[in-house]
Amino acid sequence: MEPAPVHYPWRQLGDLLVDEGLLTEDELEQALLEQARSGRLLGQIVVSHGYLSAFSLARVLSEQHGVQVRQPDDDDPATATIALALADPPEFGATEQATDAPPWRPLGRLLLDRGFLTEPQLNDALSEQREGHGRLGEILVSRGLLSGTQLAQALAEQHGVELDSPGQELETEVIHASADEPLYKVFEVHFEPGFQRRTSLYESPNFLEAADYAFEFVAEKDPAALEIQRTHGAAQETVWNYSASRAAAASAAQKSLIETFGFDPTRWGHDR
Fold this sequence. Notes:
It contains ten helices and eight strands. It is α+β, with helices and mostly antiparallel strands and 272 residues long.
């Protein structure tokens, strides 16, 4: 039996874009509503609506991985824009998960699929990352295994946006994590009689890496529940959680609606 589908925690990405001043709170809420209706990736939605540029999205995502990228000759109009290609928006009557929405792929898997890395290179970098020696992009770029341009392209693609290769390599600088940064910790939740027990699985200063790890753990291990906690000093909060039972119930309810009506009546009027 396959595990129930896991929903990627998009709000944290949206909050990051709001914090960077690239989205307003209202734009984020509208984009999240569309993402829930269509199944399209949040990055794809905010770029297609013109809320921010494809390069701005890729730049922020790269910085989360410890790599700062800049377009060469920023004052030159010829290099000011990187071309953008997006999947078409969902058609009227499409099911909850749009058929043209690209499947979510963790960054490591995407880098292998693109031929940017070999599997041994990725496994070595992941081992170093899990020992607390940096973020995945930071490690790969520092080692010379990946360019800043390749990282930006892969991260953009992961979020539904395609960046054409610029005429020149993007200017790249590795930014090492500071000790004062918050940590994102992935926990497996075990339900015992009368209480919940948590097992720490993974931690990273990069929320996106923690989410990638959680996504792969659900796909491989089918746990009863997972959560990601953000810790910063004494402060601690749960920023995402997954429950296999809730995911299965939501999946079954969606299937039942479509089988009963031939379409999802909860979407009626939203796709016109």
